[in-house]
Design a protein that fits this description.
Elements (H helix, E strand, L loop, with lengths): L3 E5 L4 H12 L3 E6 L2 H9 L5 E4 L5 H15 L4 E4 L16 H27 L9 E5 L3 H4 L4 H21 L5 E7 L14 H9 L9 H11 L10 E5 L8
Parallel strand pairs: 1-2, 1-4, 2-3, 4-5, 5-6, 6-7
Helix pairs in contact: 1-8, 3-4, 4-6
InterPro entries: KR_dom, NAD(P)-bd_dom_sf, SDR_fam
Family: Belongs to the short-chain dehydrogenases/reductases (SDR) family.
Protein name: SDR family oxidoreductase
Length: 248
Amino acid sequence: MARTVVISGGGTGIGFAAAEAFAAHGEQVVLLGRREQVLARAAARIPGAHHLPVDLSEPQGARRAAEFAAKEFGTVDVLVHSAGGNGRKEERADFADPLDAVAHDWDVNVRLNILTAVLLTEALQDHLATPGGRVLFLSSIAAYRGSGSGAYAGCKAALHPYAFRLARELGPRGITVNLVAPGLVEETDFFTGDFPEERRKELVAETATGRVGHPGDVAQTLHWLASPAAGHITAQVIQVNGGAERGH
């Protein structure tokens, strides 16, 4: 029987690649995100996909997503948290006081990377398949190395203890909870635009594999973690960054 897979941030990048990976194995995917047009285009490329535009950083958005999933499918088998970002694409005001800018940066990153994941998880907990449910978070190499902005790295790191506690709470129900920590992943919104070529070369040089990551690298890891083969793996962070987390 096909499983229901809910993916936040499923319209682009890693989230979309994950949706393709699950759909390729006959799973029913539901794409969540803030941008209606982006989601609609993504859903049109995946047979049978559903999509719902919601702001998951707000309780009402997470509640709406949970109500939609419960009404349409009853049970959620896999929950993938791919929504996030470092805030560069958000509206940014000019602050006269640097401290105000710092506060704004942290507030945006908390909303994008923590609240989107926590609120949706809490809203969907009672609808997760029991047993066999899977909850998967997108962390980052930044959570270990402090790379990128301090706010982004800190917020990704904050997901770890939340996921570990969740694994203990949901374990008796036969539900596993894990995280994946990518490094440089091209073909995503995160590493496009004005990303310096020199910095790209530096990040590639830090890997043991000598190459950039691709959305499919992460998507296939998420798919495996959601499979029966990974049923005894929980409360773990899987590094998908070519060994860059270890440094050179």
